[in-house]
Amino acid sequence: MKVAGFSKTGTKATEVTLPKAVFDVPVTDQTLQQAVVRSQANLRSAAAKTLTRGEVRGGGRKPWRQKGTGRARFGSSRVPIWRSGGVAHGPTGLQNYQKDMPTSMIRASLRMALSAQVKNSVVIEKFAVSEPKTRLVIDLLEKIDANGSVIVVSVEPTENTLLASANVPGFRIIRANQLRSYDVLTADTIIIEKAALAVLETWLAKKSVKPVGVAK
Questions:
Q1: Per-residue pLDDT for the chain (216 aa), expressed as one digit of tens each?
Q2: How much is the pTM?
Q3: What fold, for 2-44+98-204?
Q4: Pairing relation of β-strands 2-3 and 16-17?
Q5: CA 38 to CA 183: how far, in whole Å?
Q6: In angstroms, rounded to a whole number, what is the distance separating the alpha carbons of residues 183 and 195?
Q7: CA dist., res. 35 & res. 106, Å (int)
Q8: What is d(CA 192, CA 180) in angstroms, rounded to the nearest whole number?
Q9: Cα 33-116-200 angle, rounded to 5 deg
Q10: What is the DSSP string of 68-134?
């Protein structure tokens, strides 16, 4: 499998041959779906929080005497059936949405994602700019003809590049050892540095168990 190769300045160079063990594997929808659900769940935070009857302000005094009023007996106005009372069985802010997958399946799903997106991938010698200027990053992306949502897979991005790309919409730099299937599948263009390509090959070409859903 060959893709376009570019120099540091964005000039088109010779085509780069990608390792088949990483970029040319059978794609299984079930494995990719499980990997995407895991990524989305791990990005979710427990922001919702309601007050229980013990946390609602006020209501310490009995609303009315126990008998003789003709009304139902209540010991506090903080009970859940009262307006402005506490919430029974509501979210506590301590919910854990984290999901995990076997390492072999994480690697398998990333290989599948890269294989599915190989037509949208290019290789660059090094994605870096000399000064922390957004215009330099935009010019480099235009030379590569990278449009839409763009991710750059790097080993160690320079400080100037991180500062210059902070305001570029739809652009992210991801370290090779932190790449996820979700990142690859949601990108319109994938720019891989040569050094990062070697890291991915070393990490993902390892032999792993057969992913779920693949026929024997």
A1: 799 999 999 998 889 999 999 999 999 999 999 999 999 999 999 899 999 999 999 888 899 999 999 999 999 999 999 998 999 999 999 999 999 999 999 999 999 999 999 999 999 999 999 999 999 999 999 999 998 999 999 999 999 999 999 999 999 999 999 999 999 999 999 999 999 999 999 999 865 444 444 443
A2: 0.80
A3: Ribosomal Protein L4; Chain: A; (3.40.1370)
A4: antiparallel
A5: 12
A6: 19
A7: 7
A8: 14
A9: 95
A10: SSSSPP-S-TTSTTSTT-PPTT---S---------HHHHHHHHHHHHHHTGGGEEEES----SSS-H
**To which residue do tokens 């935009």 refer?**
138
Show me where the domains of the chain are located: 2-44+98-204, 48-96
Q: Two tokens at 198?
A: 């070697």
The token duo for 52 is 């229980």
Q: Which amino acid makes up residue 135?
A: R
